[in-house]
Amino acid sequence: MLNDGIDISQYLKYGNNDIDIEVMGSPRNLLGPLHQADSGKLWTDWSSFRKEGLEYTPDYIVKPYGLFGRSDI
Prior knowledge:
Layout: H1 28-31
């Protein structure tokens, strides 16, 4: 079993095994909100796109996500 993973040992056979991984993302950096100050909010709703208030910044804020390294499965 992998750290913070799932146990797939029942699906493995003796010898080489191929594992396919499907990675899904979100259009967060494409569609926004791009001007929301980092408030730690985990939810995006209509208020995330306002152009005023404490959570607004004129800077472009993008979030890193995706595959950043090799998978050691």
